[in-house]
Amino acid sequence: DKEEQAEHLRLHAQNIVERLEDKIRELESANRRLRELDRLKSDFILLVSHELRTPLTLVSGYAHLLAEHVRQAGDVIETTKVENIAQGLKSGVSRMQGVVNEIISVARISSGNLDLSLGPVRLEHLVQNIVKELQPILQQRQLNLKVGDLSRLPIIEGDGQQIKHAIEQVIGNAIKYTPDGGDIFIIGRTVGNAVDLIIRDTGIGIPVEEQRHIFDQFYAVEALEHHSTSKHSFQGGGLGLGLAIAKGIVEAHNGRIWVESEGRNPENPPGSTFHILLPLKQVRASSEERES
Length: 292
Fold this sequence. Notes:
By secondary structure, the chain is α+β, with helices and mostly antiparallel strands. The chain folds into 2 domains: 8-111, Orthogonal Bundle (Helix Hairpins); 119-279, 2-Layer Sandwich (Heat Shock Protein 90). Helices cover 54% and strands 14% of the residues. The protein is built from 6 helices and 7 strands; from the N terminus they run H-H-E-H-E-E-H-E-E-H-E-E-H. The protein has helices at residues 2-73, 79-111, 123-141, 160-177, 242-252, 287-291, and strands at 119-121, 144-147, 156-158, 183-191, 194-201, 256-260, 272-279. The strands form 2 sheets. Strands 2-4-5-7-6 form a 5-stranded mixed β-sheet. The chain has a two-stranded antiparallel ribbon with strand order 1-3. Strand 4 (183-191) and strand 5 (194-201) form a beta hairpin. Helix 2 packs across helix 5 (242-252), helix 3 (123-141) packs parallel to helix 4 and helix 4 packs antiparallel against helix 5. The chain is extended and about 110 Å long. The termini are far apart.
């Protein structure tokens, strides 16, 4: 009996020790995550400061230039000079608006307050508009953006403006990580009761172990030391919110977004393929579900 009791106590003690070790490992993992979040927060604050300081400096410089022209010219200022200054001011303000809008978008998504104005959406038209708007950047970077025949895709139900924003973020990511002179392809297909919009690039790729994290907020902050003032230049800057915003919008439409890539290789770029899967119809919550 004593031996059985001793064995029972030994097993009980061993079980307690194993449970304590498991808890310690959980606490250590949570502590590492908290330290990582603290680092991301600090880097994000620095990044936002940088992103806002650049256009603020631009606006301040052009405002000073305008004041100097007024002082020197007296009553008359050349129209060309005024137009150039106005364009510079507009560019600076537009960039600041972009930074603020990204922060607002991710805040709404995180809090679950992303309101959707549902209606018929033709993806072909959305993609055409995005490509048209991106032409200056594509030409500057000598990127070839090729769009397949999207005219046969069915009309889906969704918020056209938000879906356009999500697609813009994914295409923008392709532009950012595709070397100058590279290719970006956009095709679509119907999969059951959903549409799969596929965006493939010939970029440097994404490490396999990091593919699950690229849709996390502030992912780009990990490369803070390589930050560039232009979010559309090769491996340029930005707040690291684009893909997180895209994911939030797609999931708000009960869809899915994911990426496929063989890995990262700047010397021999393997490219990346993003899928945006959107249902044809949205399932509306009943009045009882909304009240609950």
